[in-house]
C-alpha cells in the first residue's frame, strides 16, 4: 500500500507536474489534496504541451485514476473547461473523480478576492485572484458550498439564500462596482455545473482507503509549496491552504502512518510569484536571463515570476516540516552558462548569522543572504541521462545541494521532457514499500 506524497519545497512552481508524470508508470491513483485553480501544472509529452490547473496530471496516463480530494477548492467552470479541453484532445477523462466534500469557488469568491486585493494597495498579497482565500474562508465559517450541493437544488438554494445577501453587502462595503449577485441565477448556473460533473462526484476518501487496502500505489500531489503554506510560510504572504505533506492527510483522506514516502521537489534556483520577502531575489540581468531561459511566467496568471539564487535556509526547514525522504531537483539545465552560481547558506539578520528559517515575514524581510559561490559550467546538459554525463561542476553543485538538504537527491531534471532526466540513486522511503516502489 505505498502512498507517496509529492511536495514543493520552495514557493511553488518547482515542477511537481513533471515529477508526478515521471512516477506515473508505478502509480494507480493520483490525488490532488489542496489549493485550487491558482495552481498550474505544465506537462510536456512529445510535441504536446498540457497546462492543467485542477485535474491531476495523472489524467494523461490511461491506467491512473485522477482524484480531486476534499481539501481542494474547485471552480467548477475551470474544471469543466479543463475536462472538455482534454477530451477534445482525445484524453479519456471519465476516470476523473472529485470529492463530494470539496468546496466550490463561487463567482462571489472571485469578486471578493479581486476587490480585497485591490483595496490592500502596497499590502496586497499578490493573489492569483481566483477566489481561493474567500472560498477557504467560507469553508472555515461553515457557509461554503460543497460539490455535493451542486447535485441538490433545495440545499443549494437554502445555502445561497443565506450567504449571497451577506456577500453582496460585503462587496458593496468594499467598494465593488459590479452588479449584485442574484440567487436564482447563481442556483441555475451551479445546477448546470452539477449536471455536467455528476458522474465524476465520489466519496474520494473511501476510494483512497479502498485503493490502499488493495495494495495500489497512490500519489498525493500538492500544489504551491511549503513557503506558501498557511501555517509554515511567511504569513500573510501565503496561500490559504496546507501545501505541506501533512495537508495530504487532511485534504487527501489518509492517515499519517499510511504515508510511505515524501518526495520533495525543488528547483536548482528559486522563484516566487506575488508579494512577500525574498532574500535571494535577483533584480539584475542574471535574474532576467534565468527567468527567460527557465520560462518563468505563471501558468495561471502569466505574471513574470520573481527569480533568485538557491536558498538553503528554508530548504532545511522544508525538509524537516515535510519529513522529506528524497528530493527531485528540477531545472538544473537553466543554470548552464553562468560563470559562477551563488547559494545562500545563511542569513545575516541585525548583525547576527542565522541558519534557521525565521518564523516571521518581518524577520525574513530583514535577512541579508550570506553566499557560498560555486563554479558554473558552460555547456548545455539537456542530453545527460546519467550522473557521469553531467559536467563535473554541475555534479559538484548537485552534491552541495544534497548536503544542504540532508536527504538524497535521487533524480535531476535537465529539460522539460519526461525523458530529460538523470537518475542519481534509488529512492528510499519511510517504509519498505517505498523502496519497492522505486525499483
Ligand atoms: P492565492 O493562492 O491565489 O490566494 O495567492 C496567494 C499567494 O500564493 C500569492 O503570492 C500567489 O502568487 C501565490 N500562489 C498561489 N498559487 C501559486 C502557484 O501555483 N505557484 C506559485 N505561487 C502561487
Query: Strand order within the widest sheet?
Result: 9-7-5-2-10-1-11-15-19-20
Average of per-residue pLDDT values: 93
The CATH class of the largest domain is identified as: Alpha Beta
Molecular shape: globular
Tell me the fraction of residues in β-strands, as a range.
15-25%
Small-molecule binders: inosinic acid
Please report the total strand number as a whole number: 20
* Alpha carbon gap, first and last residue: 15 Å
Q: What is the architecture of the largest domain at the second tier of CATH?
A: Alpha-Beta Complex
Q: Compute the CA-based radius of gyration.
A: 22 Å
User: What would the CATH topology of the largest domain be?
Assistant: Adenylosuccinate Synthetase, Chain A, domain 3
Contiguous uncertain segments of 5+ residues: 431-439
Notable traits:
Adenylosuccinate Synthetase, Chain A, domain 3, globular, 439 residues, four-stranded mixed β-sheet, single chain, alpha/beta, binds inosinic acid, 20 strands, 13 helices, ten-stranded mixed β-sheet, disordered C terminus, Adenylosuccinate Synthetase, subunit A, domain 2
Short synopsis of the structure:
The protein is of the alpha/beta class and 439 residues long. It has helices spanning 16-23, 76-88, 107-120, 132-141, 153-173, 183-197, 204-213, 246-252, 285-293, 312-321, 361-365, 392-405, 432-438, and strands spanning 3-8, 29-32, 41-45, 48-52, 65-68, 73-74, 97-99, 103-104, 201-202, 218-221, 261-267, 270-272, 306-308, 310-311, 326-330, 340-349, 352-354, 368-375, 409-413, 421-423. The chain is built from 13 helices and 20 strands.
Amino acid at each position: 500500500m505505498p502512498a507517496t506524497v509529492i511536495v514543493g519545497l520552495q514557493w511553488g512552481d518547482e515542477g511537481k507536474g513533471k515529477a508526478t508524470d515521471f512516477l506515473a508508470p508505478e502509480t494507480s491513483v493520483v490525488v490532488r489534496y489542496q489549493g485550487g485553480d491558482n495552481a498550474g501544472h505544465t506537462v510536456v509529452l512529445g510535441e504536446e504541451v498540457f497546462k492543467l490547473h485542477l485535474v491531476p496530471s495523472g489524467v494523461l496516463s490511461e491506467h491512473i485514476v485522477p482524484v480531486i480530494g476534499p481539501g481542494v477548492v474547485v471552480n467548477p467552470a475551470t474544471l469543466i473547461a479543463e475536462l472538455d479541453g482534454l477530451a477534445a484532445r482525445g484524453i479519456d477523462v471519465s476516470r476523473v473523480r472529485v470529492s463530494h466534500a470539496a468546496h466550490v469557488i463561487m463567482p462571489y469568491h472571485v469578486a471578493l478576492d479581486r476587490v480585497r486585493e485591490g483595496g490592500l494597495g502596497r499590502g496586497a498579497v499578490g493573489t492569483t485572484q481566483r477566489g481561493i482565500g474567500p472560498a477557504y474562508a467560507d469553508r472555515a465559517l461553515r457557509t461554503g458550498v460543497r460539490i455535493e450541493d451542486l447535485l441538490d437544488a433545495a440545499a443549494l438554494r437554502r445555502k445561497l439564500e443565506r450567504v449571497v445577501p451577506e456577500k453582496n453587502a460585503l462587496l458593496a462595503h468594499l467598494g465593488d462596482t459590479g452588479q449584485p449577485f442574484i440567487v436564482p441565477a447563481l442556483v441555475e448556473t451551479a445546477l448546470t455545473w452539477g449536471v455536467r460533473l455528476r458522474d465524476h462526484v465520489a466519496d474520494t476518501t473511501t476510494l483512497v482507503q479502498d485503493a490502499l487496502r488493495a495494495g495500489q500505489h497512490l500519489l498525493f500531489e500538492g500544489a504551491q509549496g511549503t513557503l506558501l503554506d498557511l501555517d509554515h510560510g511567511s504569513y500573510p504572504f501565503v496561500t490559504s491552504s496546507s501545501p505541506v505533506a501533512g495537508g495530504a492527510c487532511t485534504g487527501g483522506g489518509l492517515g499519517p502512518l499510511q504515508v510511505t514516502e515524501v518526495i520533495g521537489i525543488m528547483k536548482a534556483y528559486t522563484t516566487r510569484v506575488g508579494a512577500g520577502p525574498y532574500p535571494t531575489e535577483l533584480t539584475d540581468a542574471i535574474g532576467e536571463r534565468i527567468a527567460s531561459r527557465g520560462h518563468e511566467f505563471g501558468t495561471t496568471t502569466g505574471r513574470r515570476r520573481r527569480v533568485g539564487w538557491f536558498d538553503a535556509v528554508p530548504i532545511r526547514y522544508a525538509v524537516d516540516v515535510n519529513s522529506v525522504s528524497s528530493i527531485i531537483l528540477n531545472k538544473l539545465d537553466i543554470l548552464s552558462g553562468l560563470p559562477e552560481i551563488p547559494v545562500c547558506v545563511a542569513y545575516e539578520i541585525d548583525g547576527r548569522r542565522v541558519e534557521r528559517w525565521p518564523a516571521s515575514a518581518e524577520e525574513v524581510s530583514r535577512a541579508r543572504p550570506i553566499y557560498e559561490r560555486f563554479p558554473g559550467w558552460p555547456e548545455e546538459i539537456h542530453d545527460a541521462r546519467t550522473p557521469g554525463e553531467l559536467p563535473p561542476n554541475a555534479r559538484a553543485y548537485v552534491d552541495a545541494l544534497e548536503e544542504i538538504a540532508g536527504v538524497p537527491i535521487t533524480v535531476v531534471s535537465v529539460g522539460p521532457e519526461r525523458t530529460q532526466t538523470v537518475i542519481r540513486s534509488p529512492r528510499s522511503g519511510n517504509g519498505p514499500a517505498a523502496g519497492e516502489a522505486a525499483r
